What does this fold into?
Amino acid sequence: GENVEQHPSTLSVQEGDSAVIKCTYSDSASNYFPWYKQELGKGPQLIIDIRSNVGEKKDQRIAVTLNKTAKHFSLHITETQPEDSAVYFCAASMGGGTSYGKLTFGQGTILTVHP
Amino acid sequence: EPEVTQTPSHQVTQMGQEVILRCVPISNHLYFYWYRQILGQKVEFLVSFYNNEISEKSEIFDDQFSVERPDGSNFTLKIRSTKLEDSAMYFCASSEGTGREQYFGPGTRLTVT
It folds into this structure.
């Protein structure tokens, strides 16, 4: 089955710096890659996603890139703010066909933004 | 904005007892999921549910687990005889379709003593 690896496990940055989190996946059939932000005591919140027919997607200060050949995708947060501090999870899924959309998650990255 | 809701937020039960975790998915969604997150670990898929039947389940989802959509709005996860290792956060999620955005509820923290 699919396996998703995520790095780094912790990331500490100064406010205003950029943060990059990287994930690799194993199953070339995966075609949907969401990123979730999880704050303490809350459920994962979808912040951005990308599909395999697109190489890059941007939404204000966050962007995601996908390299299908290398089977890796990354989350980029620019101009970080203290409220960006949270745990970030990447995930992979196969949409369509015989798949029912199961998400396989990475291990998570604890992002701390220091004021 | 529509959201997934879950009750209760925290459930404490004794080993061997049955628990039912409840979820109300987003109303126009067709696919429903349960995930589990043991403290400090990654989120793990348990089961997906579509068209009133289980569509996929993980090896974690053994005979002690069951899911049901008893009416048009609720989606439940039942654990028949809880074990200590069932202690975790349980998240419900829903989606309009496969390969579409999955929205998660706030979770139920299950503590088995």
Observations:
- Chain B touches chain A through 29 residues (CB under 8 Å).
- DSSP finds no helices and eleven strands in chain B.
